[in-house]
Write a structure and sequence with these properties.
With about 700 residues, the chain is an alpha/beta fold. It folds into 2 domains: about 280 residues, no CATH class; about 325 residues, Purple Acid Phosphatase, chain A, domain 2 (4-Layer Sandwich). The protein has 15 helices and 28 strands. Strand 8, helix 9 and strand 9 form a beta-alpha-beta unit. Helix 4 packs antiparallel against helix 5. The radius of gyration is 30 Å and the shape is elongated. The two termini are about 35 Å apart.
Length: about 700
């Protein structure tokens, strides 16, 4: 992960390609860590990279997996990724494997990797040799008679043709090497989701089709009541050119578009807008709306059905609610400029949940989230997950939200976006992926106040990089506008402050590398999906790390220390296998390898067992950090509240030393209380960013 102000700064992948040792170590370890395998990279010696891989101790129960299947797949995987890296500093790799905390080496293997970069150097040296042969040949022609010269010339032509036949252009070699690892020339027009085949929507109406960068925009809650829509459908987004310039722009629509009068009798506030109000969204450049929220069913099934039909007629995609469970759970797959993006939406409540033959919203269940993501992961480039969750007007997400967001990233999502609290919340980077917990209100006509501060999220996709940034927005008379100067600094400072509770708060802007992994086997629309059922039952796959609880994730347990990698071991002399990665193909041991380049399925287990006494010398420090939020540092002074961690407030002291100053002196200093030990400045009262508490007219947007 690299923080950057623009695209010009090198990413971790680029640093690794340049031969940076630390970047190589972090890059390879990040590839293997999701599989329960941890790697340590030593500096390359004469172009040979030294890699020590450690398996979790639970792998010891399956010796066949460690000795054959996992070994072949792991060697092929590492060599293929190094070939993709195409670093001139890496010409080979020596891999040693062992169990975590064990000194004995299970196996080791050396592989020579012929990358396009190294092949180019060899081709250059070969060209020099050919030139020298030409020079000697021409010299012979000058010294010998015409008959002998003719004979030599004929031999030379034959030799040159034979030599040229053996030379293959780097472009051709690269194309051959990607036959198995690269995407097909023409991707299918549909993908296999967890429950059904979903067509891919081609987004061709873009501002600049020749710019390879794909721009995504995400806004918070939108309510198109009369106060926001009025009769001028162009006024709401009049100052938001950023939305019209984006390739795909999305909002959370907090009201049905219906003329139905059958509202929910047990609900205090039922929101709706006239179907004509959809013109506000089309005029603003909105391409996609989330319907997985607590207002989608305000006017029961007729209101939802009319909303869906209205959006379809306006050419606006929607997700998170439908006429039945299949439609509510259906992802939106949008392809723009060659990038295929999947959008998923969930409402964190079973209230008005869709079911078989019943309209409603897509209820969030952990195994359902895992199934949906894993079904799409190998068929799209990016996965965006939207959650309608949390406590209204809370400045910080709850611990259960943090656990759920990180669980979502663990399943393979690239971005998590939240809404519902009506105010901005913080953002963090988890395993190189951004999590934005709440974007607050955007254009909310159901609000008593028409002026407030908020932000929108801009995501730029270029090659395999993701640039994420907050755009500060001021809303006046329900008209948002991206601001600059002091106002922008104030809003971004607030976002930075509420993000400080996380171990890795998201800075704005930030450029992130996409995780590089082995290409999974394609799931064709007509083929069953491993680990996913098409019956609609929310049962996780065998390899899915899904908690049994379908409502909330369990509270994080105290992490146990796990073995730390010791120094490079000295092992007895063992037999080595050696293979060569030629012509861009992945390396293979001497035995016939399997056709797949993928690693074996992930193995998920509970907490690791306590290391035995023999491993004590290797367990002095923890090596693996549990994927749960750690408490703030002791110096931050943050405290735990029901909604998360709250920034510290300076404690007030009213201790006065009457020996050194009179009571009158204390009273004349309203903002400072002095004693002989210290002087404590009382904190000033600060106005909050966003919507003040208690200033809303609705109870639950």
């Amino acid at each position: 992960m690299v923080y950057a102000e623009n695209w010009s700064q090198p990413s971790m992948f680029e640093l690794a390609r340049s031969g940076n040792f630390q970047a190589l170590n972090d890059w390879i370890d990040s590839l293997l860590r999701p599989e329960g395998i941890y790697a340590r990279v030593e500096e390359a010696q004469a172009g040979c990279l030294q890699i020590l891989v450690e398996f979790q101790r639970e792998f010891a129960s399956d010796t066949t997996l460690l000795g054959s299947t996992l070994r072949e797949g792991l060697v092929k995987f590492i060599c293929h990724q190094l070939w993709r890296l195409n670093s001139p500093a890496v010409q080979g790799v020596r891999i040693q494997a062992r169990l975590a905390g064990e000194p004995d080496i299970l196996w080791k293997q050396s592989v020579r990797i012929v990358t396009p970069a190294s092949r180019q150097r060899r081709h250059y040296r070969s060209s020099l040799g050919v030139d020298w042969v030409k020079f000697k040949t021409y010299r012979s022609l000058l010294l010998v008679g015409s008959a002998v010269a003719s004979f030599i010339l004929g031999c030379w032509v034959s030799y040159h043709e034979a030599f040229a036949m053996r030379l293959v252009s780097p472009a051709s070699q690269h194309q051959q090497a990607l036959v198995r690892s690269g995407p097909p020339a023409k991707r299918p027009d549909a993908v296999q989701a967890a429950l059904e085949i979903v067509p891919v929507v081609q987004q061709k109406q873009v501002l600049n089709p020749y710019d390879p960068t794909v721009t995504l925009m995400f806004g918070g809650n939108v309510n198109l009541l009369d106060a926001a829509a009025s009769n001028d459908y162009h006024s709401a987004f009049a100052n938001m050119d950023e939305y019209r310039q984006a390739d795909v722009a999305m909002v959370n629509l907090e009201n049905p578009l219906t003329r139905s009068t059958l509202g929910q009798s047990k609900k205090q506030l039922n929101f709706k807008a006239d179907p004509e109000s959809v013109k506000v969204l089309t005029a603003g450049g909105v391409d996609l709306v989330n319907l997985a929220n607590n207002h989608a069913m305000d006017y029961e099934e007729p209101g939802l059905v009319e909303t869906i039909n209205t959006l379809n007629n306006a050419g606006i995609q929607h997700l998170g609610a439908g006429r039945d469970l299949k439609e509510a759970r259906r992802p939106d797959i949008i392809e723009v400029k060659g990038q295929r993006i999947a959008y998923l939406g969930y409402y964190d409540s079973d209230l008005h949940a869709a079911d078989s033959g019943k309209a409603g919203t897509n209820s969030r269940r952990n195994n359902r989230v895992a199934e949906d993501i894993r079904a799409l992961r190998g068929q799209v480039d990016w996965i965006v997950v939207n959650y309608h969750w949390g406590v209204e007007l809370a400045d910080y997400p709850g611990d259960w939200q943090i656990d759920l967001a990180r669980f979502t990233i663990d399943q393979g999502a690239d971005l998590v976006v939240g809404h519902h609290p009506n105010v901005l919340q913080g953002a963090e980077i988890y395993k190189g992926r951004p999590i934005v917990y709440s974007l607050g209100n955007f254009i909310f006509g159901g609000n008593v106040r028409s002026d407030y501060d908020t932000a929108v999220l801009k995501v730029s996709l270029k090659d395999r990089n993701m640039k994420v940034e907050f755009l500060p927005v001021e809303v006046k008379q329900f008209q948002p506008k991206v601001v600059q100067g002091t106002a922008a600094e104030r809003i971004l400072k607030h976002v930075e402050q509420i993000s400080s509770i996380f171990d890795k708060p998201m800075r704005s802007p930030v450029v992130l590398d996409a995780p590089v992994s082995a290409t999974p086997a394609p799931n064709t629309p007509n083929s069953p999906l491993p680990g996913a059922t098409k019956s609609g039952n929310d049962q996780p796959g065998l390899n899915s790390p899904v908690p049994k609880d379908d409502t909330n994730l369990p509270q994080p347990a105290q992490p146990k220390p796990t073995p730390i990698l010791p120094a490079w071991p000295t092992t007895p002399k063992q037999q080595e296998n050696s293979s060569v990665l030629q012509n861009g193909s992945t390396p293979a041991p001497e035995s016939s390898p399997p056709e797949s380049q993928d690693l074996p399925p992930r193995i998920y287990r509970g907490q690791p067992e306590k290391p035995s006494g023999e491993a004590e010398p290797f367990t002095k420090e923890p090596f693996i950090k549990e994927p749960f939020i750690s408490p703030p540092s002791p110096n931050s002074g943050a405290v735990l509240s029901p909604q998360g961690y709250v920034p510290p407030t300076p404690a007030l002291s009213f201790k006065v030393s009457v020996k050194e100053q009179a009571l009158s002196q204390v009273l004349t200093a309203p903002s400072t209380i002095r004693d002989r030990e210290k002087s404590i400045a009382l904190p000033p009262f600060a106005s909050g960013i966003g919507e003040p508490r208690g200033s809303r007219s609705d109870g639950a947007p």
